[in-house]
Specification:
InterPro entries: Homeodomain-like_sf, Myb_dom, SANT/Myb. It contains 8 helices and 8 strands; from the N terminus they run αααααααβββββαβββ. With about 375 residues, the protein is of the alpha+beta class. The chain binds a DNA duplex (21 and 21 nucleotides) through helix 3 and helix 6.
Length: about 375
DNA sequence: AAAGTAGGCAACCGCCCCGCG
DNA sequence: TCGCGGGGCGGTTGCCTACTT
C-alpha cells in the first residue's frame, strides 16, 4: 500500500500554466505569502493545481528576480567547477548563481554544457584516455559524503575542497595511469596528452575542467611553466561509475558513483587528493585551505582500507591517526620529503604561497607512477 | 511545402529528509 | 520514539519549436 497522494489527482489540472493561473498564483503569494503550506495554497488561491505544481511554478518562473536567457561564461565556469566538485546538486549550484533556478541549471547542463565539454574532450583526450580501464583501477582518495556534513558550517578554509564553492582553484585528481608511448616533448605530456594551444576554454582564469567519458581532465594553460616541464600526468576526479557494495565501500577497486540517497558514496561529493598506484605506497591528500596554507593527510588508511577498497573514514578528517590540518609550506615540504613513495615532488614557490605552487614529478623519470599535482 | 528529427525547456514524478504531533 | 506528511530535490517526460531533408 503506497502513501496517500498529496492532492486529488483526478481534480487537479496538469500541463502548462495559463497566464490566468500565473497571475492568480502571483497575486496570492504577493498578498499572503506561501504560508509555509504549499499543499493548502492552491485551494486558497482558487487554483485547480497540485501544491507541488504551484511551488514549482513559483520557484522556477514567477518569483521575483528570476533570470532567464543566456548563461554567461562566468556562470558556465561556476557550474562546471561546482559540478566537478559536488556533482548534480543543482540546488547548491543554483544558490551560487543569483537569479538562476536549479531546474534552469539542470536543463542547461543536460542540453548544452555537458555537450560543450564533451566536444572539448574529443579534441583534448587521446583514445587511450577514454578507453583505458587503468585509470579507474583504484578507488578515489576522497572522503565519503556522510563525513562531509560536519564541515558545512565550518570556516571556509577548514572545509574539504568538495564543499568549497568559492575560489575553487585546485584541480581534482583521479587515478588515471597512462601508458607512456613516447618520450616527453616540450608542450606535451609524456602520456601523449597533448596541450591544445588554441582550445576554446570557457573556464577562463582557472584550471579548466573537461569531462571525459570516464574522468575529468584538467587542462593546463599552454604558456604556463609547468607545461614546459614535460610532466608525465595530470589526474583529476573521475566520474566513472562502478559497482559499489551496500556499506559504501567500493569493490573491485573501481570508483564509486552511487546516489547519496542509496546511502553510498558519490564521487563528486568527495574531497580531493591523489593516490599512488601501488597500495603499499603512501597515500597523500592535499586539501587546499587558503592562500597561505594547505592541509595534508598522509594517512593512507583513512581512506583506503587494507583490501585497498574505498571505505568510510570512521572519524571524518580528524581521526586520531590522521595527520591533517593546516600546514604551511615548510610542513608540506617536510611531509613530501619524508614520503616513502618514489614520487619526486618539486615545489615551485614563486610567490611564497602554497596556493601558487607546482607539485611536479621528476621530469627525467618515465615511470608511469609519477604524478603531478598542479594548482593555480 | 511537408514530414521527420533534434534540441530546449517547463512540468511532472517519485523518492528522501525532516519537522511535528 | 515513531509515524505521518509536507517540502525539497534530482531524474525524467513530453510538448513545442527550430532545423533538416
Amino acid at each position: 500500500m503506497g502513501r496517500a497522494p498529496c492532492c486529488d489527482k483526478a481534480n487537479v489540472k496538469k500541463g502548462p500554466w495559463s497566464p490566468e493561473e500565473d497571475s492568480k498564483l502571483k497575486e496570492y503569494i504577493d498578498k499572503y505569502g506561501t504560508g509555509g503550506n504549499w499543499i493548502a495554497l492552491p485551494q486558497k488561491a482558487g487554483l485547480k493545481r497540485c501544491g507541488k505544481s504551484c511551488r514549482l511554478r513559483w520557484l522556477n518562473y514567477l518569483r521575483p528576480n528570476i533570470k532567464h536567457g543566456e548563461f554567461s561564461e562566468e556562470e558556465d565556469r561556476i557550474i562546471c567547477t561546482l559540478f566537478t566538485s559536488i556533482g548534480s546538486r543543482w540546488s547548491i549550484i543554483a544558490a551560487q548563481l543569483p537569479g538562476r533556478t536549479d531546474n534552469d541549471i539542470k536543463n542547461y547542463w543536460n542540453t548544452k554544457l555537458k555537450k560543450k565539454l564533451r566536444d572539448m574532450q574529443t579534441h583534448m583526450a587521446p583514445p587511450s584516455l577514454t578507453t583505458s580501464q587503468s585509470h579507474r583501477s583504484n578507488p578515489p582518495p576522497f572522503p565519503v559524503s556522510s563525513s562531509l556534513h560536519q564541515f558545512q558550517n565550518q570556516p571556509f578554509h577548514h572545509q574539504p575542497l568538495s564543499l568549497m564553492h568559492k575560489d575553487l582553484n585546485m584541480m581534482t585528481y583521479s587515478t588515471y595511469t597512462p601508458t607512456l608511448t613516447s618520450p616527453a616533448t616540450p608542450g606535451s605530456f609524456s602520456s601523449g596528452f597533448e596541450i591544445m594551444p588554441n582550445i576554446s576554454n570557457p573556464l577562463t582564469n582557472y584550471s579548466s575542467l573537461f569531462q571525459t567519458q570516464e574522468c575529468l581532465v584538467g587542462s593546463m594553460h599552454y604558456n604556463h611553466p609547468a607545461v614546459k616541464k614535460n610532466l608525465n600526468l595530470i589526474m583529476f576526479g573521475s566520474e566513472g561509475s562502478c559497482s559499489t557494495s551496500s556499506d559504501g565501500s567500493c569493490n573491485n577497486n573501481q570508483i564509486s558513483y552511487e546516489s547519496r540517497r542509496s546511502g553510498n558514496i558519490k564521487q563528486e561529493e568527495m574531497g580531493m587528493g591523489f593516490q599512488l598506484e601501488d597500495p603499499n605506497q603512501k597515500f597523500m591528500m592535499l586539501n587546499y585551505g587558503n592562500s597561505s596554507s594547505a592541509a595534508i593527510s598522509d594517512d593512507h588508511h583513512n581512506y583506503i582500507n587494507n583490501n585497498n577498497q574505498w571505505g568510510e573514514r570512521p572519524n571524518g578528517y580528524n581521526g586520531n591517526n590522521t595527520r591533517f590540518g593546516d600546514y604551511d609550506l615548510e610542513d608540506v615540504k617536510q611531509l613530501i620529503s619524508s614520503s616513502s613513495t618514489d614520487i619526486n615532488i618539486n615545489i615551485n614557490n614563486d610567490n611564497g604561497s602554497i596556493s601558487n605552487s607546482l607539485f611536479s614529478v621528476d621530469e627525467n623519470k618515465t615511470d608511469h607512477k609519477e604524478k603531478v599535482m598542479y594548482f593555480y
